Amino acid sequence: MTTSVVSSQVGSQDESENDKLETECVFRGFLKSKASQDRQDDIERAIEGELEADEPSLINQQRNKQIGSQLAAIADQLDVQYRHVIDGLIDELKLTSENAYDNFAVLARRLLARGVTWGNIVVLFCFGYRVILRFFSQNIPNLIRSLSDIMVRFVVTEKISQWVKDHGGWIQVLNAGIGLESPWYHYGAVAVGLISIVALVVWWRK
User: Torsion over CA of 89, 169, 51 and 31, rounded to 10 degrees?
Assistant: First the structure.
């Protein structure tokens, strides 16, 4: 194997690992912000206990938390309007420790069937948060850690993280006038999310 091939493989592995760490940090910020918004103190403490104990060492860690917080603010409108619909879909998934990733992936792929958008990413994260809420009272060991791993694995494996990079990176969420802080983008993201949820329900109930 030539040196150039080895270097390429190492570079690709490093890039993939960075994608995982960055996605994980953004999703953690999302979960914690949503739990805080919803006054879910027990879940917020559990997030700190399960996730922040092994906080990824990223240079832009604080920025990624801010990104997660901004995504959570947008998800709040979706959550208020469609939480019962989302919870119904989660119940129908019949998630167990054995089928959790595969069943979650089936639903998530359908959500993204028309392509990745910022709005669909918000809906995807919102689903992850609602899964935690639905199962938290059952005292499942490492529930939040497991869900976070599933989300990160899906985002990286399904090339959503690549889409994010191709569209300016997660930082676009914070860029006023371009990202989700601008009013037209905020409501546009919510509208896309609502359409995606409705389409998902129609497909699932067929």
Answer: -40
pLDDT digits (tens, 9 = 90+) for 80-106: 777 887 888 788 778 787 888 888 888
- Give the amino acid at 171: I
Tens of pLDDT along 9-22?
A: 545 567 788 888 88
| Size (the chain), residues | 206
- Furthest-apart CA pair in the chain: how many Å? 56
Q: Where are the domains of the chain?
A: 3-205
Secondary structure letter of residue 57 according to DSSP? -
CATH class given for the domain over 3-205: mainly alpha
pTM listed for this prediction: 0.79
The Cα 135–Cα 203 span in angstroms is: 24
Nearest to 145 by CA among 100, 180, 103, 178: 100
